[in-house]
Amino acid sequence: MVTINKAENMFYIGDDVKEPIAELTFNQSSGNNIVVDHTYVSDELRGQGIAGELVEKVVAYARENKKKIIPLCPYVKRKLEETQEYHDVLSEK
To answer: Less Cβ around it within 10 Å: N or C end of the chain?
Structure first.
């Protein structure tokens, strides 16, 4: 299991926030929305479900902060739409 760290407007894996080996970035939007705009997983971590774990983290963050997610990142959009348990945080915008 990997440790997922939280920085301002991102969840990441690695020792340095400036050079993460995996990341999911988001921005606060108007109202109670956050916009997830980018997901990256390095070659060394690909195929291990890391991107899915990052999505789980941002979903938990959205729930804790009573936010909805606007997924601009195609991977996050697909993951939220395909996972019934995540529909409560999927923005209708």
So the answer is: N
Q: How many CA atoms lie within 13 A of 1 on its CB side?
A: 4
Helices (H), 1-93: 50-64, 74-82
Strands of the chain, DSSP E: 5-7, 10-13, 22-28, 33-41, 68-71
CA distance 93 to 71: 10
Task: Give dist(CA 87, CA 43) in Å, integer.
Answer: 29
Report, as ranges of residue numbers, the positions in the chain whose pLDDT lies below 70: 93
